[in-house]
Amino acid sequence: MYTLEELQAIVNKCYRCPLSKTRTNVVFGEGNKNATIMFVGEGPGYYEDKTGRPFVGKAGKLFDNMIGAIGFKRQDTYIGNIVKCRPPNNRNPLEEESKICIEFLRWQVKIIDPDIIICLGAVAARNIIDKNFRITKNRGTWYTKGKFNIMATYHPAALLRDESKKKDAWKDFKSIHNMYKEISERRIK
Ligand code: URA
Questions:
Q1: Which residues contact 52 (CB under 8 A, 6 or more apart)?
Q2: Ligand 1 atom nearest 54 alpha carbon
Q3: pLDDT digits (tens, 9 = 90+) for 7-63
């Protein structure tokens, strides 16, 4: 079993797929090593690639506001991505790239051991929940895999493109908060 730091050192030197050739920085992920909730996005965008940090662009600001509204700071959670290097022109990661890179995410999940995993958008949901996942239809539903409670909601970038989705996203975030409360209460008992 690696520590998170050991794993990060490995990922920083990864050249397993072509995305490594065009990256500026690897975006490993960040947050609380003992987080109860882990958020998983799709892959770094322009600002994430420049800074090496997840969700720091416009979508990231919205993400911070949304988790803030249910009482969390990003330091309370862990934020990762399906692929750790920016796909050129922000295209979706290819299946092959995701397949290679998700191994690192699996390690992150093993080390952090969260109770709740939230997929941000269809790419994360298709890689984590079901390859045929339909974000409009299946978002907001809780799935159980082993000890993990997993749900997908809209990617914050989708909410920036279409404000009408915010109402459903807000329902999902309230449901995330309720699940968190339930798990915390179970622990105290
Ligand atoms: N979008 C993502 O899916 N991940 C990031 O880290 C930033 C934007």
A1: 25, 26, 27, 28
A2: 6
A3: 999 999 999 999 999 999 999 999 999 999 999 999 999 999 999 999 999 999 999
Domain locations in the chain? Answer: 15-188
Determine how β-strand 148-153 pairs with β-strand 143-145.
antiparallel
Domain 15-188, CATH number (from 3.30.300.20, 2.40.50.100, 3.40.470.10, 3.20.20.80): 3.40.470.10
Q: Which two tokens stand for residue 170?
A: 């807000």
What is the distance in A from the centroid of ligand 1 to the CA of 6? 23
- Residue 93 Cβ < 6 Å to ligand 1: no
Question: What integer pLDDT is reported at residue 3 of this predicted model?
Answer: 97
Mean pLDDT, residues 70-97 taken together: 98
